[in-house]
Write a structure and sequence with these properties.
about 180 residues; mainly alpha; Rna Polymerase Sigma Factor, Chain: A; Arc Repressor Mutant, subunit A; about 70% helix; globular
Amino acid sequence: MILNETQTISSMRTMETEFLSSLEKHKGILHKVARMYMDGEADCEDLRQEIIIQLWKSYQTYKGESAFSTWMYRVPINTAITFFKKKKKLVTTFSPEVFPEQEVEEYDSSKDKQMELFYKAVHQLKPIEKAIIFYLLEGLSYREIGKNLGISEGNARVKLNRTKEKLQMLLKNKDYEF
């Protein structure tokens, strides 16, 4: 009996070590998803923590049939969409006095400024559109985007093109300068 418990503990430690190692290797996914769905750093951190919890809860279902990063894409996006919906329900009305517009920090690098403006525009997209842009930025094919979102490759192509057009219009209409 003691040997069996020892084996179980050892197995759990091995699984935990593998999970943490894989998570560390692909932590950029966490940061990108959080940044796409949340504005403030505190909200981003809350979302990252929620994603890690959901990844750990579902890690036992990961069978290793695909790369960890491929499996990992779905959990953060689904978690972010759910988290975003919950957060949106908490704030039922908006008042500029209650939530003053955040000032955009000035960056030394023009690339950082471009990214800040890009994220500002992305925040105006619907959750599914944010997921599509995220997958595009990660270099996924139309087929992979469709598979991750549960839609056909053709539908993914159409949604991606429409989302890119919408994002371009948002950037153009706000007179963002690059």
